[in-house]
Amino acid sequence: MNIEEFREFGKASVDYIADYFENIRKIDVISKVEPGYLKTKLPENVPPTGEPWQKVLQDVDRVIVPGLTHWHSPHFHAYFPTANSFPGIVGELFLSGLGCLSKDWDSNPACIELEVRMMDWLAKILGLPGEFLNSSEGPGGGVIQNAASESTLVGLLCGKQRALRDTLKQHPNLDETYIIPKLVAYTSKESNSSIEKAGLLASVTMRLLPTDKNGSLRGDVLLEAIIRDKDDGLIPCCVVATLGTTGSCAFDNLDELGRVCSNGGIWLHVDAAYAGAAFACPEYRYLMKGIENVDSFNFNPHKWMLVNSDCSAMWFKNTKDVERAFKVKATLPKIPSFKPELEHWQIPTSRRFRALKLWFVLRIYGIEGIQKHIRQQISLAKFFEHLARIWGLSALDLGGEDSLTQELLDEISRRNKIFLMPYYYREKLVVRFVICSRFTEKSDILYAWREILSLVKHEEPYIHN
Ligand code: PLP
């Protein structure tokens, strides 16, 4: 492909995507293809000679789009929002167009310096304590990771490493092989499955603790578990608190957990993957009370803050902890040209220029635009609450057997007018309702609510508060 063809292909593709969004309201939200549908539509082997881009674009339309679930349809109310915005899309185009990775500063100065500044912008938007900023006097700082799952693993590995170091300091007669199998971490039963997975990957036992009736992990439950484990000779090393659980958007009591962790010298990581974006609006910051006791904090601008995936923001109160955990001896020892050295705060060796799309979104929306987006989506959720009396991620319980709820979901799915997912809330199957698409409007909520009510056969749905 030469540069003229690249221009044509690029322009036609932007037009295609613009048309897609213009028509998204008319498209069925879930694809109805059968498993294996693609097999008959594509050849088994690579074409022996190159094909024209026009044919490829036609096949996107013919083969790929019919097999899509439309996450940005205004009728998509399943899972969680995945960010998408026009500045975010163009940002992605630029970062892949410019195509430069970075390792250290010398490998790509703009990438590192923009990321350092963008992480400070983001921290300020959320109202995080100043000590997390890259520009702070102290050792705090922030970096863009690939995903919340990866950030949790990084936080856990920091906690593991710090507990190992502290234990060796207190008991120099012990060795690593004795200490490591005794390390234990904690999270709530409501936390995302990626937390349990981080425990597996880090080889640290991850305890899933019960929550209160609001789905919140409380300090007394944590303390009890820690005392029990210490009595059994185990070594607590990390707590992963969730601000905004995937299932019901519950918030752990960070204030209480933070006090337990700081008294016990235990690493506290916050997973605010989805709901963290709400802290851009000061009226929701009460939900992160206790943030001063947190060691690492993560949220995904790629979920609810309009930055296309991937872009997961992570801050450390003391980046020396992550450097101790991750910094390996350089093959070519040299004095760094620039600090911070972000490459030592992450698992991959290199990084994409993700700060570029973050910059596009933050500049083009501004704080006001971001807040407007969050408030608009929460007001739609409240409108659904008004219709169904719930907040954020809503959960409908039909009041009868789980099978009734399943039947409703099956029928909703068969009709394909809206897309909802089930969830076990306090051991009962409920229907989750999430505001996901930035195209969703009040009329779409009414449409969804009418669709649900028209299919509830037996009685008024019971609404969880
Ligand atoms: N944590 C929470 C609370 C989530 O809701 C999710 C995804 O839904 C994750 C973690 C995992 O996020 P990621 O896909 O960025 O790893």
From TrEMBL:
Q: Does the keyword tRNA-binding apply?
A: no
For this protein, the record's SUPFAM superfamilies field holds: PLP-dependent transferases
Keywords assigned? Lyase, Pyridoxal phosphate
Q: Which cofactor does it need?
A: pyridoxal 5'-phosphate
Q: Which InterPro entries match?
A: Aromatic_deC (IPR010977), PyrdxlP-dep_de-COase (IPR002129), PyrdxlP-dep_Trfase (IPR015424), PyrdxlP-dep_Trfase_major (IPR015421), PyrdxlP-dep_Trfase_small (IPR015422)
The record's annotation in Pfam families points to: Pyridoxal_deC
The source's domain of life comes to Eukaryota
Give the similarity note.
Belongs to the group II decarboxylase family.
Protein known as: Aromatic-L-amino-acid decarboxylase
